[in-house]
Amino acid sequence: MTERMEPETCEWRVTGMDCASCAGKIRDALGKLPGVSDVTVTVIGERLKLRLDPARTGRDRIEAVVRSLGYGLAGPGGAPARKAFVLPAEGSGDGRHDHAQVQDGAGEGRGGHGHVHADPADRGIAWHRTGKARLVILTAGLLGAAWAADLLLPAPAGRWAFVAACLVGVAPVALRAFAALRLGQPFTIESLMTLATVGALFIGASQEAALVVFLFAVGEVLEGVAAKRARDGIRALATLVPATALLEEGGRAREVPAEALAIGQTVRVRPGDRIPADGEIVEGTSGVDESPVTGESVPVTRGPGEAVFAGSVNTEAALRIRVTRAAADNTIARIVRLVEEAEEARAPTERFIDRFSRWYMPLVVALAAAVIVIPPLLTGADWNTWIYRGLTLLLIGCPCALVISVPAAIASALSSGARRGLLMKGGAVVEAAAKVRQVAFDKTGTLTHGRPVVTDILPLGGSTAAEVLRLAAAVEAGSAHPLARAILQRAEGMEPPAAREARAITGKGVSARVEGRLLTVASPRHAAGEGALAADAAGLASGLEDAGKTVAVLFGDRTALGLIGLRDEPREDAAEAVRQLRALGLTPTILTGDNPRTAAAIAGRLGAEFRAGMMPDDKLAAIRDMGAKGGVMMVGDGINDAPALKAASVGVAMGSGTAVALETADAAILRDRVTDVPAKIRLARAAMANIRQNVTLALGLKAVFLVTSVLGITGLWIAILADTGATVLVTLNALRLLRYDPGRGGAR
To answer: Which of 18, 94, 354, 442 is flagged as catalytic?
Structure first.
């Protein structure tokens, strides 16, 4: 009996894509193969990922199909381990529409039929030295020679010179069109180009046909340059981590590759050097420029026990740093991986444009055929005239500008945000963020610093303040809650007794057996529910809460031993963030487990709405209730608020590059700035406005030239110039987002 092979996830690097139509061709061709499912192709990350049943289709078949479409392939075909991120190495192929074959080599493939998007020698070199640029130069030379022959030689010789120039230039395009046709894709830009060019030759428009081929090649160069710029923005992040590090061993330091550093090792970082790994400072205090990672322009002072990021710059004094994350999992690696994988989460608008283009191109071909046939048959018009106009329509109908309008803007927005510490997981998140109408905030660690301090200790029932603090510290000894840390910090220098049978009371407090008594540190509401809070003690607790403080009650045997007042101050920019959100027409609301009086005091200082006394389930219900009135963004710490973050239209985790902040929510803010929340929304809105501009530009130009072509006002070379021009204009407009500063609401 033959053993049944289970489907497996496979991954390759596909070189040479520069627009969504490139990805679409690969996705459609592979999706038709038996045993192939879940095909995702990312243009900026240059990745192909799919589920494959090897018993029905082998990896070699996948690679053959991709290469037959003219794209280069790298990688063994297996899904790599979750190392860092999938980035093309510097010094390998540049990108798109190279009309020369890729040379076989280790890990690279041979592109098929001349449309090689990825000569490995192209990446990292000037655009004019790439294979596609060489084709443009060749085509231009042939076109110039043809014009010279037309002027200097008899008429037939000049005409044949243009025919030769046209055929040389269109040959690789025709081969790509044939390859796509064999794979069931008759309506591609290559097929339209081939039909229009060959048709023009048959009706004697050889000069225009040759010019069209040249302009098409120029357009591909321009598109490739734009795609390379988008990729370079991501690649630049990967180069921030230094190649080497000074590793301490036996009291001496030696230089080793930064990627070889292991967790627990200690490295030395000299003033002016980049930090080679995520870690924790063991010795030294210095200013650290974290702008490469978080976008924060002002260096911050870091000392022993504080975390630092790989790629940050040590500006002042020597530091000894203990490595806490491997190179493959450092903050920059995860940022790059997140941005690249974000392409897989396509925006709804992008999916609509993709579906629209599937019937748009056949419609254009049908319209062109009607233009060619109907006037001569019905009115006896000249066939050559209407064939020419129909061929012009074919070129006008190319949907390149329309198809690239959405992903180009999304990619630019994601890259711009990543450089400023504003991460979003794909176009779907960008579009959702642009539509939010309400913003919900967790309080502790989000609107506040998350570092409360003990402000008041009120002993009850004959206890002393020192006794209350000592016992409370014993109960809280095993807790990582911010309030517990504040109590333990205040109790430094004391020797709390040992605690046993410690347990957390979800959302209410913690209890433990101390010196033979079962003691609890909890909220006043829970203490009152247990019958441990007398009227006078409840009055004291209310007074502390009216002052905006959080109150913890230490009690045992239904008797309160003392009250501990704590305050967590709002972040300096929290009020400004709330003001900016209201200016954007949004309603900010604080969701907190604090009592209503404490919540009202903080919300009043910030100018926000609030809902108090909320357990995690209550926050989830609140998000669902708010979502019924429109899009809602939830901003939290990515841990305690996980259910609410997932339920929101957009869940945003705040935190300086924590694993949770980068992996669990829809978006993340690396700088601990609340004002980055309205900045993220501004960036999303700018991206969607850019998309609307691009779609209008693409469709508007096509509509104008559609009419002028049918009327005979514009011809073939104007048609291809319009198509290329629209694609370039749309791409350049999208690249403006790279300069957009959402913190200031405009370009730098």
So the answer is: 442
